[in-house]
Write a structure and sequence with these properties.
85% helix; mainly alpha; 89 residues; flat
């Protein structure tokens, strides 16, 4: 019985080390992190779109509409900062 607890502790520490390693890599590479977060956020948005349309759209169509909405929101934010934030000289 004691050994199973030790194995669980070792497995948990290895998982924690892997998560820390992934976070360190993501701090250098921003695009994969942003794509991952957008896909996770779309997991929340897609069912809302599916429910709001009264199930007239398929799940894949609502997933695509949610992703399209996120892309449009991202472009809006990017263009807002490009147009209204002054350049640093």
């Amino acid at each position: 019985m004691k050994f199973s607890h030790i194995r669980g502790t070792i497995a948990a520490s290895q998982v924690l080390e892997k998560i820390i390693g992934i976070c360190c890599q993501w701090s250098r590479q921003k695009l994969p992190l942003y794509l991952f977060l957008a896909m996770c956020f779309n997991l929340v948005v897609a069912p809302l779109v599916y429910a709001a349309t009264g199930e007239q759209l398929s799940r894949s169509q609502s997933w695509g509409l949610g992703l399209l909405g996120l892309v449009i929101l991202g472009l809006f934010i990017y263009l807002f900062f490009v147009m209204f934030v002054p350049d640093k000289l």
